[in-house]
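anyone seen this seq b4? input:
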Amino acid sequence: MHIVECKTRFPYPPLHKYHQPGDLVIGVIASQSLTISDVATFHKEPQPTTFEELTIVTKNYQHILALAFAVKEINENPQILPNTSLGFHIYENYFSAKWAYYDAIQFTSTPESFVPNYKCDTHNNLLAVIMGLNFQTYQQVAILLDLYKIPQLIYGSSPVMNDKTPGLPFYQMVPNEGLQYVGIRSLLLHFRWTWIGVLTRDNEKGEWFVQTVLPFFSQSDICFAFIEKVPKTNVVSDVGDLMQRGTKIHDKIFGSQANVVLLYGETYSITTLLWLPYVSELLNVTKKVQGKVWIVTAQMEFLSFTFQRTFNKDMFHGTVAFSFHSSDPPGFHEYVKSVNPSSMTTDGFIRDFWQQSFACVFPSTWGDKVEWKPCMGTETLESLPRSIFERGMTGHSYSIYNAVHAVAHAFHAMSRLTRRAMADSGELKLQNELWWQLHPFLRSVSFNNSAGDNVSFDHNEQLIAGLDINNWVISPNQSFHRVKIGAMDSQVPPGEALTINEDAMTWHSWFEQIQPLSLCNDHCHPGSSKKVKEGEPFCCYDCIKCPEGKISDQEDMNDCFKCTEDYYSNQGHDFCIPRNISFLSYEEPLGISLAFSALSLSVITGLVLGTFMKHHNTPIIKANNRNLTYTLLISLLLCFLSALLFIGQPQKWTCLLRQTAFGIIFSAALSCVLAKTITVVLAFVATKPGSRMRKWVGKRMANAIVLSCSLIQAGICTVWLATSPPFSDTDYHSVVEEIILQCNEGSITMFYSVLSYMGFLSIVSFIIAFLARRLPDSFNEAKLITFSMLVFCSVWLSFVPTYLSTKGKHMVAVEIFSILASSAGLLGCLFFPKCYIIVLRPELNKREQLVRRNH
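predicted toks r here
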């Protein structure tokens, strides 16, 4: 049997750079704490010859301090892990999947040896692994640690986490990534920013974001002016090519009218964008840097390389940044103040951090190769700009802090049920085979940390927490301030999750503190609607005025809509006005005038009838069948009164009587005129010697004509009432501003049949009277009848086109006027000459005078 000695060392030095021993150990694999540039060899520490060659993101050193502070809090609290100390190992993977995999293997082997799946050291038992990984390294580590069911706690987010395979043993110390996308969408809709640019990294996560998240924004009518991907960089990248691509991105961003740019990338993406202002200077780019509203996702932090501390950062002034919710635990600031190279002897990162942050050098590290000011070790972290080091906990640091406490509380809960004391030492140890037993306790863990925030996981092993929304404020001296302006609450419906304090927001000076717009074109104001431009995104559109009868009462409406039937659109087509109820009433001037005219003519007709009845024995009245004259006058009187049925609000009974009564009464009047005309002709013919027409002359003939002609019209009206009678109706369409109360004729055919029959009677009367106008009869009324029928026909021939061209109450007024005018024409032409003789020239009302006049 081959036995591997525990003291055998791996030929290469281990990659862990910070080791704090303890009974229980948390492993940490970090890729965001140290060197960003690629490292050619990992067999020895990099030895740069110039200060600028070592490019360290010093701000992420706070992640280490958050971890150390959490462990310190737990070890000093006897209520969490009594009689047990907690330690940690930090391993740097240099953004390499190979070295991340190597780090993970070391968790299952003896320290300082590399024998996978073999451990002969019973100290420093691994409890869990905290990882801040990118997509590639996550896959490698997760597969290995899943074999051992070692709990993994992620303090970053990756698309794969949203679709992780059930059962994978990791816990996400940040809320579901979808929460921030809902928040970004809500923020864009809140400020009505529908035309935005998008900037992502040219990697798998960037492609995932473009393919998965952007369509989610498009569903809310958000369009993209451009989608640019920042290229990957490494030490062998073609500088010229990178500059050209940087110029292209620069022109896209600052040449676009989109004032909002959504930035999605890794933590250090800001360091790349800090070069943009210098691209225009190096390549004489015409598009100068102008103000933009940057919306930054929670994966990113405002940080810079140490050599970028003097870079102009005004470009990011006013940025709206989503971040994982964070709070400062009590005592953390004091802990940070106490940090210095002499007090952190086991910290393999602090010397590099110190040298880069304070631009100094430890002589023991660099020897005599460089001539820089020496590091005294008494420098204070508070003097560093926030882009280099953050004194308060950031979202990522707070996630690490909560991860350590979650593991400690879960183990505390488990240890109460599964305590196993080891012989001799009496210390509590976690045996390797109990790794998997920690998972149920991690899933159900729930506690309040020292900052007062609750820490617990949902059914997907994701932290139940919200997001903070911060405003980045860059002062003229390039100092950085983070101002909280809102939050996303994960415990409420998505539509209510976003809270934003607009008064606390600071915009870029380019916008002069006015809320910027980000639209493809100006808003369509109320009264118009959008018309999509052909070949353009749906956010680019023309504005067209609403058509007649439609309105739009909000900006950017896709279509105009009709007002309800009781309303109509105003002239600006932006709101609805109540429609007036319209009918010809007795309270308006037109109705009063027509009613007064009808009553006046009725009175005049009555006076004529009374005059004729008073002088009924005079020759001029007896000359042409006085009974027929009385019938005609009574018919005309009723015609004038029938006009009153057309005035007032239409009712069921008035609608039934209007046209039928008018038609029958008028037909009776015309029948009388026709009878008078025929009587004149027959009287002349009958006076000839030997005429056989003598027997037709008399009252019986006239009565037969009046009765038969009136009955025909009555029959037509009866059929009308039996088949499709008139009824009261409401017309919403004829006049835009009015609701017309009217009588619907029921059958238009029957209505025009009634009018046609009256026209037939009047034309027949006119023709006969016209032919008989020169008959040498002493009492010939043919001339008067001819003229009266000419007036009558003229009125009703002009009635038809006028009636059809008017709407509402004016249509009714036209019909009333026609009734009154035609009736007045008959009255005036037939009876006023006779009244003149009867009243003013009685001496002419004698048989001798009439005979003489006619001869």
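The chain has a mean pLDDT of 79. The two ends are 165 Å apart (CA to CA). kinda curious what u guys think
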